Structure formats: C-alpha cells, structure tokens
Amino acid sequence: MSIKKIAERAGVSPATVSRVLNNPEYHCSSQKVQDRIRKAAIELNYTPNKAARNLKLGAREEEEKTYYVNVLMTRVDQSRTDPFFSELLRVIESEIHKHFCILSKVWYMPVFSDDKKCQNTDLDRMTAEMYEGVRGKCDGLIIIGKCNKTALQKLNRQYKSVVSVNRNSTNSAVDEVLCDGKKVASMAVNHLIDLGHKKIGYIGDCRNEARFRGFTETLQKHGIGLELDYVVETKQTEAEGYDAMKKLLQSDNCPTGIYCANDITAIGVLKCLNKFKSVGYTPSVIASDDIEEAQYSKPMLTTVHLPKEEMGKFAMYLLLDRMRGGHSSVARMELEGKLMIRNSCMNAEEAEWCDYVI
To answer: Could you tell me which of 297, 282, 302 has the C-alpha nearest to residue 344?
Structure first.
C-alpha cells in the first residue's frame, strides 16, 4: 500500500506520512494527526516499497516473505499516559517499516501489567481473542512493558515468535531486550547518596517492580534504612506523581531526595512543588527514562537515560531472526542506562534554590 493512499485517508501530504512512519524523531504539529497517520497505515497494511527502495540504492531485489508484526502495550491505555512508551513505540514502528514488515495491530492493554487484575481475568479467553482477531496477520509479537508471568506464557503459546522490550526481566520466558530497572534505580539512588542524601523517598510502582527492588537494595547496601513514610505507591502517571508529592508535603518529616520510577511521575512531582513552593521545601528529584519533556522542565530533570532507539532496533532484530528460524533458544540483550545530570538535584546541605517552574 502506497504512502499516497495513507496520505489521502489521513488528510495530510505524502511527505508528512513518510516523515512520521520512517523517522521516530519527527513530530507533527498535532498528536491527533500523527495518530491518524499511524492508524491509516495499520488499516491499509502499509509496508515500504522494497523494489523502489532497492532501485534507489542500486541493490538487487530478492524474494522474501513479508511478515506481519503485532505490538502489545501493557503499561498504558490509549490515552498514552506515559510518553516513554509512546516514544519507544515510534522507534519500533519505524524499525518494522525499515525491515519491510507490516504492523497489523497495536493493543493498549494495561491489565497485562497488573498481577492482581490478571488473577481475576480470563487470560485464556483474552489471549485467544487477541490472536483470533489478527489470524493470518500474526507472525510475531513485540510486548512493550511489564507483563504478568501467566499472561506472558499464554501469549507465548499463541505466537511462535515473541520479544519483550522491558525494564523488568521475563526471566528467560521469551526473547527480550532489557534495560534493567533494578540497575537503573540503583544508578539514580547512588547519585542522591553521592550528593549526601540519606532521607530518600520513592514514588512509583512497588509490586513486582525491578526499580523498587533496586531502590531498596541500594539503600540497604549503603546502610540507609527504608522509611515507609517516604514511599508512595502510584500508577506512574503525571497526575499521580502530583498527588504523591502533595501527600508527602503533608508530613512533618519529608525526604531530602526523591527517586521517581519514571520521568512523567517526576514531572507531576515538580508541578506540585512549583504550586506549593511557598512552603520552602526543595528536595532533589531524580527519575529514569529521559523522555523529551525531561529536558524542558524547570529545573531540568536529572534522570537515567534509557536507550530507546537501541531497544527498538534490537527488539526487531531478535524478532526477525526468530521468525526466519535463525535461533530457537531464548535470547536476551541487555542495554545500559546512562545518568543525565541536570539541575533538579543538589547537595543535601545546599537545598536553597526554589526554581520549580514547568
């Protein structure tokens, strides 16, 4: 299906369609326009014209099967409350098109990341209906985000080729590309400790969560006790980050440093601190992901960068290799995070600035 047909359905120019589908860094002036283009591409089974691409590159065209790839988003619903996963999806969509595959379905099903909800859900029926809905167009599945162990097993039975892109390991249940959340959290908390902080809080998911384990284990390693009053469990959205910080502000004994499990939660925290800056409380705030918004907050958010581009690239590499029969054993690729030091953190004894403005 040509880019021109997608452009007609989405009501935009072919050039805009090309930029959206092939460049994960490109952003339309409107998110709705971008969503229309991606929806049209899926509905029309878009795949790049390999013959035209090879002609342009002077390469010889070879016969090769066209694979249909599905994507399951387990951490966000269609409101896309966590930009990290939207950014990662853009990378994976571009990789799918680069390899002349067809993205046939994207599911947004946060139930799969919630162990408690999975216990009360008919997972057999749900996974069977998912697979049936894409029958004939389901060569491989990429799961973005944490997935319940039982649900993952059932998905793996339905699909011959599954790759997980995650911060929580599947423990060799399926092929995976991992940026270990435990190590990411440890890197962030160590930075706070290096700055002299001993009263350190946590805002984020706590249940079966690698980042929370990394947080607690790093404190223990440095002989710092876990203060339960400093831990606020949230669903890791901006709104819940705001509410979590508001809850901490009501305490007479607040942490001097706070690790937020993801950037969008931290942005909610900063917005709350900005609104209530008259109280004079200025904790150091650090997070993980390095979404685009993290570079535009004031203070600019110190965070741990997760290599989304490489995660998406290697996920597609593993999926293609398995679909082509290149490997049968479970494969794991682990990528490292990188500390991005900005100005939302300071030495524990120097907490005198008050620049919380988004």
So the answer is: 302
CB distance 179 to 334 below 8 Å: yes
Find out whether 307 and 335 touch, Cβ atoms under 8 Å. Answer: yes
Number of Cβ within 10 Å of residue 353's Cβ equals 11
Which tens digits make up the pLDDT trace of 313-330?
Answer: 999 999 999 999 999 999
| 42-85 per-position pLDDT tens digit | 878 887 765 444 434 445 455 578 999 999 999 988 877 799 99
d(C-alpha 88, C-alpha 179), whole Å: 13
**Domains defined along the chain, listed by start:** 1-46 (1.10.260.40), 181-306+339-350 (3.40.50.2300)
122: helix, strand or coil = coil
CA distance 226 to 199: 9
Q: Is 95 helix (H, G, I), strand (E, B) or coil?
A: helix
Nearest to 239 by CA among 209, 211, 203, 197: 203
User: For the whole model, what pTM was predicted?
Assistant: 0.86
Residue whose entry in the numeric block shows the structure tokens 């403005």: 357
- Beta-strand (E) ranges in the chain? 68-73, 102-108, 140-144, 162-166, 175-178, 200-204, 231-233, 257-260, 284-289, 302-305, 332-334, 338-340
Question: Distance (Å, rounded) from C-alpha 199 to C-alpha 197?
Answer: 6
Residues in CB range of 230: below 8 A, 6 or more apart: 199, 200, 201, 202, 248, 254, 255, 258
